[in-house]
Amino acid sequence: MAQRYVRVQSQTGQLHYGLLRPDRSVQVLDAPPWLQGQPTEAELLPGSYDLLAPCAPSKVVAVGKNYSDHAAEMGTETPPEPLLFIKPSTAVTAAGAPIYYPSQATQVDYEGELAVVIGDRCAHVPAEEARAKIWGYTIANDVTARDLQRRDGQWTRAKGFDTFCPLGPWIVRELSPGARLQTFLNDQDTPVQSAAIDEMTYSPDYLVAYVSEIMTLLPGDVILTGTPAGVGPLAVGDRIRVEIEGIGMLDNSVALRA
Question: What CATH code is carried by the domain that includes residue 75?
Answer without folding.
Answer: 3.90.850.10
